[in-house]
Amino acid sequence: MIRKLFQVAGPESRGPMTAQFVALIVYSVLQGAAFVLVVPLLGSLLGDDPGDAWPWAAALTVVALATAVAHYLQQMIGFQVALAVSHRLYHRLGDHVSTLPLGWFSGEQVGRLGQLASRGVPQVRGLLAHLLQPLLSAVLTPLTVIVAMVFYDWRLAVATAAGVPVMYLAYRWAVGATARADEAVDAAAAAANERVVEYVRAQPVLRTTGGGARGRALLERSLTEQDAAARAQTARTAPGRTAFSAVVLLAVASVIVTGAALGLRGGADIAELVATLVLVVRFAEPVSGMAELGAGLRAASGALDRIDAVLSTAPLPEPTTPGPGPADSSVTLRDVRFGYDDGVPVLDGVTLELPARTTTAVVGPSGSGKTSLIRLLARFWDTGTGAVLLGGVDVRDLTGEQLRTQVSLVFQDVYLFDATIRENIAVGRPDADDARIAEAARLAGVDEIVARLPQGWDTPVGEGGTALSGGERQRVSLARALLKDAPVLLLDEATSSLDPANEAAVQHTLDALTGRRTLVVVAHRLQTVVRADRIVFLDGGRITESGTHEELLALGGRYADFWRERGSAQGWQLARQVTR
Ligand SMILES: Nc1ncnc2c1ncn2[C@@H]1O[C@H](COP(=O)(O)OP(=O)(O)OP(=O)(O)O)[C@@H](O)[C@H]1O
Q1: Other CB atoms within 10 A of residue 398 CB
Q2: Cys-Cys with 491: which of 167, 198, 414, 521 at CB 3.0–4.6 Å?
Q3: Whose CA is nearest to atom 26 of ligand 1?
């Protein structure tokens, strides 16, 4: 865990963390030394001449003071290092995720990243600030004591050391049992949380369908399961903790018995023996404390693993120096094969030449790879084999900045910031003047939304844009893309916002851009499809038909089938073709 801590904290934190470890080691050894000095002190006090105790008392005072100073220093260093390292970790995570492929940012990853920021990094901070000291003291202080005991009575030292492996095994067992019980409690808590959120979110459905009682029963059941897991946790962890405490007590008792036997047989100095036994009892203190550290250490170790997993994710390779950049706004795919992590091919040998300033509609059944195709154009991922070229240059030879300048993308699931409409449009170009923002908004039909809202341009859109409808959000996103003014615009039309006002706005935008930009549109609107220079029909990751609307109708293939079946519909979805 300590190796991983150094690895995750990065080279800049290595120096301060080493200083913290040195301070911790010095403190733990001094603490052990202070315990050890009690032996000669007591030995002298109980011996023939108590006056011999003075030098030992002085030595103990000096070491005790040094221990107190070391304790203060290690605490101060620990807090400072913990703060600096957690601050650094936020930066490392932020810097690293900004180099990751856009495709990495799935909902699941974003959720995990949020958890890392809100809980994982603070857990690592807690490890540095609060857990390392008791952990190192639990190991180093007893070790110092055992080494020192060899000089007083090697037999007692051996008896004490013999208990260490047994205590270690008992500790592992106790911590293992706690870990398993905690996992069950965490899983039950997560399930109960999900149910609570689901119950709240599903209120409209539950009330309108009369399913309230059933929804509540599901919630009650998960809460009961959570209670049961918490009760089982106590039952499971109690034996381990009790066994560990018992083993520590037994180890101490066996040393006391050994000491007593040695004393009775006259093999040891009684005064030193009594003092050594006091030492053994103190030895048990930091060791017993270890049982309390298990849960915190496990949580911190899990957080380190998750942070390491993010930091180890390979970034998108980029050229270090910018090359010549795209010659024009043409788009080319050359025998592109691509699949996600599960290895199932999503695009299977796609070749396309889209000349500059043309409009291409990509259509096909759900799951045929349309969204994946346009996301590859924006380099969300790199192709498995084949190449994607913008203006004749492989996207892998473009710097991030060159790619961002060349391409704008309007997603289906538009994300708006919790800011005003104006700020949301200007997000990619904060320096844009009002006239340019107004022009982009007019082209995307946002001016009409603004006119309806009491606060106009300064209307806050709420978290994620919830104050606007899906279609309105997509229009704001379109205006944002227009303001950016990239030569290639990729648009994934939202099926969820096929209302006439939105359709007219999107069409207006596309008409205004036709012949001025290279447009690639995952199309769900008939208008977009019919007016495109070229329609590409994707099925099972392959281009099965390609041409103009008239050419594809004349071909009499799947596109023509669709046209005949749904030609009069406002919006459409193609069903996956079932082949037997
Ligand atoms: N991030 C992802 N990870 C794993 N698989 C994915 C991911 N995104 C899409 N897929 C899978 O890839 C295949 C193609 O998906 P894609 O979204 O490109 O299709 P589509 O034609 O745009 O579908 P739709 O019209 O329903 O949006 C589907 O089987 C989908 O489940």
Answers
A1: 25
A2: 521
A3: 366
CB neighbour list of residue 485: distance below 8 Å, 6 or more residues apart: 408
CA-nearest of 379, 280, 278, 265 to 331 is 379
| Ordered strands of the 488-492 beta sheet | 407-410, 488-492, 518-522, 359-363, 534-539, 542-547
Residue in the structure block whose two tokens are 């942070």: 307
573 C-beta closer than 6 A to ligand 1:
no
Residue 366 Cβ contacting ligand 1 at under 6 Å: yes
579 pLDDT tier (thresholds 50, 70, 90): very low
Q: Summarize pLDDT for 158-172 with one digit per residue, the tens.
A: 888 888 888 888 888
At 533 the three-state DSSP class reads coil
Evaluate whether 179 touches 299 at the Cβ level (below 8 Å).
no
- Residue 351, ligand 1, Cβ within 6 A: no
At a CB cut-off of 8 Å and minimum separation 6, what does 305 contact? Answer: 4
What's residue 460's pLDDT?
Answer: 85
pLDDT tens-digit map of 284-298: 777 767 767 777 888
Residue type, 470: G
Q: Which atom of ligand 1 is nearest to the CA of 341?
A: 4
> Residue 420: exposed, middle, or buried by beta-carbon count in 10 A (0-12, 13-18, 19+)?
middle
Phi and psi at 533, nearest 5°, equal -65, -30
3-class DSSP state for residue 539? strand
Tokens found for residue 559: 């596109």
The SS3 assignment for 379 reads coil
Band (496; pLDDT cuts 50, 70, 90) = low
Q: Rounded distance, CA 518 to CA 498, Å?
A: 23
* Dist. CA 87–CA 83, nearest whole Å: 6
538 φ/ψ angles, rounded to the nearest 5 degrees: -100, 135
Across 122-138, average pLDDT:
89
Q: Is the CB of 372 under 6 A from ligand 1?
A: yes
Residue 227: exposure state from Cβ atoms within 10 A (0-12, 13-18, ≥19): exposed
Q: How far apart are CA 296 and CA 453, in angstroms?
A: 51
| Phi, psi for residue 206 in degrees, rounded to 5 | -60, -40
Check: CB of residue 359 under 8 Å from CB of residue 533. yes
Residue 498 — pLDDT band, cuts 50, 70, 90? low
